Amino acid sequence: MSLEFLVVFGSVRRDRRGIGLARFLVESLKARGHSTTLVDPMEVQLPLLDRMYKEYPKGEAPEALERLAGQIRAADGIVVVSAEYNHSIPPALSNLLDHFLEEYFWRPSAIACYSAGPFGGVRAAMQLRAMLGELGMPSIPSLFPVPKVQDAFDDDGSPKDDAYPRRVARFLGELEWYASALKAARASGVPY
Q: Is the pLDDT at 127 greater than 90, yes or no?
């Protein structure tokens, strides 16, 4: 079954190294037959959160918010790609995610995390897991951590180690299972 996924990337740093990981995930999902869109805060250019999407009168939200809200509602699952900044998630990622709420409900998320050091961003992932659950898109049990991201992917998403395509297969298979199950459940109705 072909599914619709968003890969939400969270860094706006000039020399961001995780963009290669995000592009690798996009291409890996596409290779599995899914429609996949990369959401990059440098392209979306959302303002600092002043008003959530739902707080705008219908039809009056900025075009970027309206477009992104539609992409989220159409998604069967969301892969969130997060760096680790001071043992937490990047501010640009939090800002992007916080603009929405109901649009995320009943969709699974998957966390890919990275760092320049040996821990692969897992400390940020633990905080992100709590945040995603609160937003209504609980994360799948598995993580996809990438230590020393600067040595792992080229900017175009090409892995520098043959282990990454093997590792990502199980992670994405788990996401597909949850996305398929929740898509069927949403079609039958949601609790409220």
A: yes
